[in-house]
């Protein structure tokens, strides 16, 4: 008798891929069923920081590479360790079957089987042996090296069936029985179970070897690979920080330079070094900043020249206008005694002279604002008295309905406040007709923390056709005309613009809108003036003083 495939046939795994001889397959201890599960919905993390994105990308790439390398290394080492142990145990078991079991009688006794199994384990191979024979046909007997450790129940049924199956002997398969093995688990400990049978009806032998040591070695290896993966990820994060700092430092400098450029520092430039893409970006920025500085300087020079021209022209016109005004006043006084054919021409000259005089005065005021020389001369003003004086001086008392309580005192520039009120009320009378309603109230400033200063609010409302929607955004523009077909008007086209400038210099503003009636139709325009009740802080910022000081805009 001889063991099947002892040295010639080689070992075959049960329920592995079919061998060339169709000997069988290797049955695994358990195979998880792989199904396509439901994918959870993960919220997409928005990473606004470029540095964070770089670090995350580096970390993910390093983690993927490290996990892949560790997985491959673990799998290769696992297969190498298990194959080395498995081959050593199976080859030793096959040799023991050939040298010891093959010498037993065809019908060995149970004592023969027990003694032989014990002898097979005395070589220090570390496995247990179980021999299965027959004392008579159909009467099996079992001999085990250690029945407390290894019994026939520990041998998988599939393995027993594969070992006990006789295969046809052919040229390609010279042996009827082969050596089969299977890895299994018992109590959480992995084991290798192998078995073969002696040709000619001899005993069947099984070996049972613990793989606990190999499992411990593989666990240590997995821990080592996990630590190496963690160190690789940490190293990649540190490397990403260095790379991000290298890449983002020029970007931060570019952002800071762009902010300075936006703040008006047109001489801002970046230091250029190297020949990479970021250096090209810095050169482009410097070129754009230089062109912008030249254009702004050119525009500023032209604007300054235009301002100087307007100021000089206004000053030069004052002298002849003074004389012309004196002449027109004389003519106006003598208008009733003039020839009726000449009187209309005199009236026209007087009207146009006054209009030209107003235009020059307004241009002078505009040049002060443009040059930044306008100043505040503050005084305590009773708003009701100020509005009454304004409309009385212009003979508007019958056309204006005033809703203002006396005693609302504000610290403002009375002359500039008079200019604002005169322009707003005059504009309402001209375009909306009488009566014009002027209401006065005070409100708390709209600060987020509720600590805003108290504001003066003056609303001027007319009952005219309102302001067309396309005109509203331009009502405070200089020389703006709502109709291109009628470019000439009685005013200078600067009144509302000057009113807005006077409001702004107080730290206030003016808004324009249309008011609607109960039926939703537009029934007039409303201009709302908002000024701080005390403009002292604004005056100090402008470097001006109060009425007792020396501040003036003349």
Automatic annotation (TrEMBL):
UniProt enzyme class: transferase
Recorded topology in the membrane: Multi-pass membrane protein
HAMP domain residues: 245-297
Bilayer-spanning residue ranges: 54-76, 221-244
PROSITE patterns: HAMP, HIS_KIN
Protein name: Signal transduction histidine-protein kinase/phosphatase MprB
Histidine kinase domain sequence ranges: 312-535
UniProt xrefs under Pfam families: HAMP, HATPase_c, HisKA
Intracellular or extracellular location(s): Cell membrane
Keywords carried by this UniProt record: ATP-binding, Cell membrane, Hydrolase, Kinase, Magnesium, Manganese, Membrane, Nucleotide-binding, Phosphoprotein, Protein phosphatase, Stress response, Transferase, Transmembrane, Transmembrane helix, Two-component regulatory system, Virulence
Region Disordered: start-end pairs: 1-29
Reaction equations catalysed: ATP + protein L-histidine = ADP + protein N-phospho-L-histidine
CDD domains: HAMP, HATPase, HisKA
Entry EC no(s): 2.7.13.3
């Amino acid at each position: 008798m001889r063991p099947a495939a002892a040295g010639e046939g080689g070992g075959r795994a049960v329920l592995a891929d079919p061998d060339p001889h169709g000997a069988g397959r290797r049955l695994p201890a358990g195979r998880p069923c792989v199904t396509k599960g439901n994918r959870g919905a993960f919220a997409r993390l928005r990473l606004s920081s470029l540095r964070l994105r770089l670090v995350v990308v580096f970390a993910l790439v390093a983690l993927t590479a490290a996990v892949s390398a560790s997985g491959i290394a673990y799998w290769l080492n696992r297969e190498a360790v298990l194959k080395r142990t498995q081959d050593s145990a199976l080859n030793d078991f096959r040799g023991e079957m050939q040298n010891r079991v093959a010498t037993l009688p065809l019908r060995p006794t149970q004592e023969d089987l027990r003694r032989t199994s014990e002898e097979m384990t005395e070589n220090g191979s570390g496995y247990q042996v179980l021999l299965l024979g027959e004392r008579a046909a159909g009467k099996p007997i079992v001999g085990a090296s250690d029945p407390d450790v290894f019994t026939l129940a520990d041998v998988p049924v599939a393995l027993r069936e594969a070992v006990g199956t006789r295969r046809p002997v052919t040229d390609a398969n010279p042996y009827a029985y082969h050596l089969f093995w299977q890895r299994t688990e018992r109590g959480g400990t992995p084991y290798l179970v192998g078995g073969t049978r002696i040709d000619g009806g001899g005993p069947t032998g099984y070996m049972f070897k613990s793989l606990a040591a190999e499992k411990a070695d593989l666990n240590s290896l997995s821990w080592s690979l996990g630590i190496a993966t963690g160190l690789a990820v940490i190293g990649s994060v540190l490397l990403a920080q260095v790379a991000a700092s290298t890449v983002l430092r020029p970007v931060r400098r570019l952002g800071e330079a762009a902010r300075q450029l936006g703040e008006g520092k047109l001489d801002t430039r970046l230091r250029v070094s190297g020949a990479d893409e970021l250096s090209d970006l810095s050169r482009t920025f410097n070129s754009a900043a230089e062109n912008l500085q030249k254009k702004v300087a050119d525009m500023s020079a032209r604007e300054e020249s235009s301002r100087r021209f307007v100021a000089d022209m206004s000053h030069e016109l004052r002298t002849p206008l003074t004389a012309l005004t004196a002449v027109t006043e004389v003519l106006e006084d003598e208008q009733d005694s003039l020839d009726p054919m000449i009187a209309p021409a005199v009236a026209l000259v007087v009207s146009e002279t006054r209009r030209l005089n107003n235009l020059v005065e307004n241009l002078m005021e505009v040049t002060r604002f443009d040059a930044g020389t306008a100043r505040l001369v503050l005084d305590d003003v009773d708003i009701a008295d100020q509005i009454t004086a304004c409309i009385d001086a212009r003979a508007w008392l019958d056309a204006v309905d005033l809703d203002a309580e006396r005693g609302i005192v504000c610290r403002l520039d009375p002359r500039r406040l008079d200019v604002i009120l005169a322009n707003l009320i005059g504009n309402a009378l001209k375009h909306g007709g009488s009566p014009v309603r002027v209401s006065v109230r005070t409100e708390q400033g709209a600060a987020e923390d509720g600590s805003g200063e108290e504001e003066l609010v003056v609303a001027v409302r007319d009952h005219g056709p309102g302001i067309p929607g396309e005109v509203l955004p331009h009502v405070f523009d200089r020389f703006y005309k709502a109709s291109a077909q009628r470019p000439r008007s009685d005013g200078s086209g600067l009144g509302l613009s000057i009113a807005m400038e006077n409001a702004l210099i107080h730290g206030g503003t003016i808004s324009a809108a249309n008011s609607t009636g109960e039926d939703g139709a537009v029934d007039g325009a409303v201009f709302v003036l908002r000024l701080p009740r005390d403009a002292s802080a604004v005056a100090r910022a402008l470097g001006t003083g109060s009425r007792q000081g020396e501040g003036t805009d003349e």
